[in-house]
């Protein structure tokens, strides 16, 4: 009975956990597909579906979470990445998973970032921000 109760509380499995709602302030470092997918235990980061090593080239990379997703969990949507805005004032759109797109769309109009604490050096890089300050 205790084992059933413990399983009911667990999200995912021992090798896979679904993405959680989190605001990431950093930029994902450069990656090697084979290394990242191996760290994911050859599982889709979104649904946990097992992927054979010969099919890892079909997985899609999420620039926000820094993980690979199957085409059911990543339809090729693009959006602005908060970490890139805060680090480089980069408002370009990047490819993200469906989960990340939904999360970022839900907070798009929310005043979440205090530039005086999160993007401290940004004022010196961006003339418009310096004038605004």
TrEMBL record:
Pfam families (alphabetical): RH_dom
Rubicon Homology domain span: 60-133
SMART domains: DUF4206
Origin superkingdom: Eukaryota
Name of the featured protein: Rubicon Homology domain-containing protein
Source organism of this protein record: Characodon lateralis
